[in-house]
């Protein structure tokens, strides 16, 4: 699509206004309930759907289809981010009442950094069509790696550690030894130092950059329109905070998520390679956006269904604790009762 500077500015202003409203409503630190998270998750999904329908009406079926395919892909890939976000929250022992503030600013940092990736990716693809081969090969490799990690019982909690940028910032400014409510900086011995809240915000934002290394090439495999790439990323990321609180407890049940994401990334990787060959004049079939959207949606549905089924079977097959006492007080209680009888 040919997007004017005015439309770009209006879009950025509109997204900024939505973020400001979100921040204003949830400005008071508090523990987010499932109901609140569910309502706001639905709000962001509806807003994304309305935006997609607007593209469909004013930009045509191609633009609308590309947005929805890109949004669903970015949203599904962002769910995998939540596993690491949970680990980061635990590592930094973030109080429950401050977690939504951490995620809000962490996601904003991630969105700004991703905008830079998108701009760079669009410029490179516009100048060098052979980069599609690199993106395609990288996605296929990432898909294979995801499967290997899933089969090997990949443990993100054991693997995550602070990146070099975060470590250098901590060394440069210093970090307070405890949280100071919502303050990002405090004075300690006359020196300005970071609070743990600021550090964990930076951790969330910069860690997301690593996920952008596969999600940005993935969405460029569905559309080469920078406007659609940016808006799909923005809507997917901005609803991530509420999704964290909504499905945080259910995420361990998505045991087949990595397999589903690997299929999606591999599929898009093949699509990119076919597109690159087509650009070189090779007569190969190109995968339409309708087929892409169907495959992505179908894989996510199947993955979710099989994950829940597998989790239910595991729970049913889990043996009951033989040490449990019939009255529910456990082995220790049973021994105490027996001891009192012997006496």
Strand runs, count: 2
Helix amount: over 70%
The low-pLDDT segments are 324-343
Cα-based radius of gyration, to the nearest Å: 23 Å
Query: What is the N-to-C order of secondary-structure elements (H for helix, E for strand)?
Result: HHHHHHHEEHHHHHH
Secondary structure class reads mainly alpha
Which strand order spans the largest sheet, edge to edge or round the barrel?
Answer: 1-2
Mean pLDDT: 80
Count of individual helical segments: 13
| First-last Cα distance | 86 Å
Could you say which overall geometry the principal axes of the C-alpha atoms support? globular
β content, as a range? under 5%
How is the biggest beta sheet arranged? 2 strands, antiparallel
Which descriptors apply to this entry?
mainly alpha, 74% helix, disordered C terminus, 13 helices, 2 strands, 343 residues
Please give a quick description of this structure:
By secondary structure, the protein is an all-alpha fold. It has helices at 5-25, 34-59, 61-91, 99-127, 131-151, 156-159, 164-173, 196-220, 226-238, 240-247, 257-279, 289-317, 330-342; strands at residues 185-188, 191-194. The longest helix is centred in the first third of the chain and has 31 residues, at 61-91.
């Amino acid at each position: 699509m040919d997007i004017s500077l005015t439309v770009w500015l209006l879009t950025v202003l509109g997204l900024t206004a939505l973020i400001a409203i979100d921040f204003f409503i949830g400005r008071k630190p508090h523990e987010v309930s499932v109901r609140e998270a569910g309502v706001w998750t639905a709000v962001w999904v509806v807003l994304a759907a309305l935006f997609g329908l607007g593209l469909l009406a004013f930009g045509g079926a191609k633009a609308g289809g590309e947005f929805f395919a890109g949004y669903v892909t970015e949203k599904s890939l962002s769910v995998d981010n939540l596993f690491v976000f949970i680990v980061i929250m635990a590592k930094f022992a973030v109080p429950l009442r401050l977690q939504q503030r951490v995620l809000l600013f962490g996601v904003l940092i991630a969105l700004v950094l991703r905008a830079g990736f998108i701009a760079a990716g669009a410029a490179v693809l516009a100048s060098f069509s052979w980069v599609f081969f690199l993106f395609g090969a990288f996605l296929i490799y990432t898909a294979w790696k995801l499967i290997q990690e899933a089969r090997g019982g990949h443990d993100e909690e054991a693997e995550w550690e602070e990146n070099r940028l975060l470590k250098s910032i901590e060394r440069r400014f210093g970090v307070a030894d405890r949280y100071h409510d919502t303050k990002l900086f405090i004075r300690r011995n006359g020196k300005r130092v970071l609070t743990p809240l600021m550090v964990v915000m930076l951790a969330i934002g910069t860690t997301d950059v690593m996920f952008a290394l596969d999600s940005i090439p993935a969405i460029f495999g569905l559309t080469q329109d920078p406007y659609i790439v940016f808006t799909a990323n923005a809507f997917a990321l901005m609803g991530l905070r509420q999704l964290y609180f909504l499905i945080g407890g259910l995420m361990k049940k998505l045991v087949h998520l990595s397999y589903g994401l690997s299929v999606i990334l591999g599929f898009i990787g093949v699509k990119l390679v076919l597109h690159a060959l087509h650009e070189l004049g090779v007569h190969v079939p190109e995968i339409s956006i309708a087929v892409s959207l169907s495959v992505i949606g179908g894989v996510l549905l199947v993955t979710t269904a099989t994950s829940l089924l597998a989790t239910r079977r595991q729970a049913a097959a889990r043996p009951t604790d033989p040490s449990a006492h019939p009255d529910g007080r456990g082995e220790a209680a049973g021994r105490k009762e027996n001891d009192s009888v012997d006496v």
